[in-house]
Amino acid sequence: MTAIDVARVRKDFPILARTVRDEKPLVYLDSGATSQRPNQVLEAEREYTEQHNAAVHRGAHQLAEEATDAYEDARANIAAFVGAKPDEVVYLKNATEGINLIAYAMGNASTSGPEAERFALGPGDEIVVTEMEHHANLVPWQQLCQRTGATLRWFGVTGEGRLDLSNIDELVTERTKVLAFTHQSNVLGTVNPVQTLVRKAHEVGALTVLDACQSVPHGVHGQSGVDFGALGVDFAVFSGHKMLGPSGVGVLYGRSELLQAMPPFLTGGSMIEMVRMAGSTFAPPPQRFEAGSMMIAQAVGLGAAVDYLKLLGMGAIAEHERELTAALLRGLGEIPGVTIVGPETTEQRGAVVSFTVDGVHPHDVGQVLDSYGVAVRVGHHCAWPLHQRFGIPATVRATPYLYNELSEVDTLFEGVRAAQEFFKV
Amino acid sequence: MTAIDVARVRKDFPILARTVRDEKPLVYLDSGATSQRPNQVLEAEREYTEQHNAAVHRGAHQLAEEATDAYEDARANIAAFVGAKPDEVVYLKNATEGINLIAYAMGNASTSGPEAERFALGPGDEIVVTEMEHHANLVPWQQLCQRTGATLRWFGVTGEGRLDLSNIDELVTERTKVLAFTHQSNVLGTVNPVQTLVRKAHEVGALTVLDACQSVPHGVHGQSGVDFGALGVDFAVFSGHKMLGPSGVGVLYGRSELLQAMPPFLTGGSMIEMVRMAGSTFAPPPQRFEAGSMMIAQAVGLGAAVDYLKLLGMGAIAEHERELTAALLRGLGEIPGVTIVGPETTEQRGAVVSFTVDGVHPHDVGQVLDSYGVAVRVGHHCAWPLHQRFGIPATVRATPYLYNELSEVDTLFEGVRAAQEFFKV
Amino acid sequence: MQLDSMYQEIILDHYKHPHARGLREPFDGESFQVNPTCGDEITLRVRLDGEQVADVSYDGQGCSISQAAVSVLTDLVIGRPAKDALATMDAFVELMQGRGKVEPDEDVLEDAIAFAGVAKYPARVKCALLGWMAFKDALVKANAVDAEK
Amino acid sequence: MQLDSMYQEIILDHYKHPHARGLREPFDGESFQVNPTCGDEITLRVRLDGEQVADVSYDGQGCSISQAAVSVLTDLVIGRPAKDALATMDAFVELMQGRGKVEPDEDVLEDAIAFAGVAKYPARVKCALLGWMAFKDALVKANAVDAEK
Ligand SMILES: Cc1ncc(COP(=O)(O)O)c(C=O)c1O
Ligand SMILES: Cc1ncc(COP(=O)(O)O)c(C=O)c1O
User: Among residues A91, B85, B191, D126, which is most buried (max CB within 10 A)?
Assistant: First the structure.
């Protein structure tokens, strides 16, 4: 049996007691888009706001001290959770901002003095991504290429939904400045071979950027949680709202030595060392990358989310998700006309199951599921090129999480069958 | 008497019932840094999170619909509050991001095709700011100049703390591409002559950027609230956390026609029109400027904050603040050795009162005040060049808001006198 | 059951048996539209005969709502003056954005009144409007109407 | 009263009557440090005599804590081997970052134990350390110690 007491866990999430559409119990299978938040997270935010709220790193009064402590304690907690040092963790509004931060900082490097030059790029330089990236880890690099004249290249995806590494030696070369890839695909569920890619990147002196949005919240089966230090990546990003935390907070991880040398991105208050009308100098990281008043309550909430995840245990969460994934793959596989897009076993694969139903458009499947109380996502899930690779405009995506019961996936199956009946296929 | 029932208002703010340092009642006079939040805002966030939380503009299920409605209804509400149309309002993490957005989008304009060219700038072009700007409205422009070769120029400040407009015709010329200035100084309290500056900018074809962080939350005395449409500015920014809203949410206002033409800044999910590996096109505003999962709960909270402000009435708030400011100016003026930095009357001036105490460093004044339960800010308040202009490293700053009692400023005076005694000056 | 209020028989009929489908030549204006959230797309062509919409032809992929809507569109506009077609579009847009609170006028909208139920599902409104957006844009490209109107 | 725990008499004495203040020549290393939150700044010079810190001279502006701390610093390091001075600095940094929970060693820190109360106010810790940061940096510039140490 699963190591998680799901019935008890569900009591912590008020929204899961809700009904939708004609009093149907909510079956929330859209945690890959955004997770729900437990009372513990809401309480931490509220307690902060009602008792300690103040500007951080600025005031000398008691509230300011308390607020600063809450903000920095959360940082230390989050950092430890992902195998990082506190000053390697930068708060962001979301993971998307983190990729943009790296891309813009690299763009700024060419006008930021000699120390920053190692980040600069221009014509002849290459950035390598993959065909399975979320738009967040693709469009910022396209734009950086457009601004600098560098060239974008990418790994293809196999029919099974794995990264096609066959041409890795042609793709990742001395010209490669950045290798950016997702830890786990938000459509296929595929877990990518981080070690292989990091080794290759470091061979050619390229920086690695890991999109950890779909791995940090879930852990990776067989490992307990994601450890950036151990993975050896240079940068990584993830979002709080996908891991039980509040909306409006994300994290950039960067190896100390790199953050030290990297020019700033957003500029303004709190990230400076000295400001004169004629020019400014900047604070050390992580402050250098945190311009303006930050999402303090949300950072505190994310710290509480990390506590919650740690209490359940990332190993137990990954195992629970593996069971749910296995049930999804099995159950959907048994419905004639359903095609799973992505690996069909739980091997190196997380709890993201996308599929199509012959003769019924994903939007219509989603609508029928909605009428059964089942919340899934339909569309290209911000991975449009990947869908093009498979020659389809859209998929239906079920993404269970630690609070989902095995019985809930049965409701999904029921809904899919009902859609087939309704549309007479 | 004041039009605000302060005793009743205070009941809505749990933190104001707190004590600090040896059971002293909290006297919170640091709202210029960040305001406190009423229960109504906390409740709105909580209700959203416990009942409707989902990804917006993406899902087809009921929660996603409800979340999208909550998010967009808040936008419409906030827009109306500042005299804007909903699609002229872009959500941000803070005001600082908003200035950076404009600066980076202008930087991107030179590689974004013909429609964007009007925003592009380079050597020979000029950006004009003022010496009283917050770092948020200064450093991003310094950096844009560094990246593009444009030149930064600035208005000086008079001894009384007003903008020195004597050389406006030399400063704002055909070379000026942007005129960026604060509506109300966060140190001096000075309210700047928006009309004069906007007229001049438009004469020469420059874009105007208004830093409204210290005006939108308070209104401007004699006017009811801030109306960007009526002011005729091209862009404006403000932050939720300074106007009773949650941390982690801010707003960029941009005239429709400009946002339509402006290239994107942050890129990723939800801001695209079409994505291919080879390149992408972008959604219309405001979506074009909202990349990734946004701070939904905080946007909803900000909507509730706007409701709260509207209920009290911006006219009443401005009048209450004027009384508090008058009391501060009078009371501090009566203490020998205290020098007010900024205008000494409430004429064209808001509720920000900064001062120095002869012989006692602002940090030490702040510490003594803290021991009286009085929370003020000490330092340069992210307006370092302004402090240099006055030849001082730092000031003590008291910033009352709608929940402050007149009696609270007396505690401040008591604390200032105690500091003088303690340091024997 | 709620589903039936969205998926009226008329909609399912048009979806299964779309009218006027396929891209035809000659044409005066063509538009390609895409729904950025779900990837649905449509290419739609308009052929004019003076003020009249002589033909509307289209191809694309999409859900039942978007496919049925464009099929109904062809019924409503082919053989009608462009000006009238746009007036019909206005009525349809009003219905779709009405959150289920706008009473449709069957004289104007004919089969399209079946979409009244869709208006209650904001996420699907874009689907129903995709073809109409393409139609209007194609008219603009054919110089039959002003972009601003 | 709480204030007294931060502002010990010793601190106020050093603040009112700072030791070794002023910038003197010659010197082997100079450092300029600034506290970005409050704008306080210090310029500090070190003159060496072999391994010994022969003189420390300084100028700047700052609050009572930062001014008193650098005054105490000069008492603690002038005439001592640079190595010992840095060991004293380590003890002082440990005390200041200890949140009031580190027991100061009077034999090492002498007058500087008066700052134990400041350690309870995290916002003021930077003030107390500003002079020491400048001292260490000046030693580095004078090539007396490694930057990494
Ligand atoms: C005048 C002014 N501009 C800009 C800002 C920056 O706002 P934020 O820190 O919320 O980005 C502030 C507040 O810190 C301010 O007072
Ligand atoms: C793999 C992946 N990368 C990036 C993102 C973007 O995260 P956010 O929208 O929180 O910035 C997401 C989620 O939307 C994702 O699943």
Answer: A91
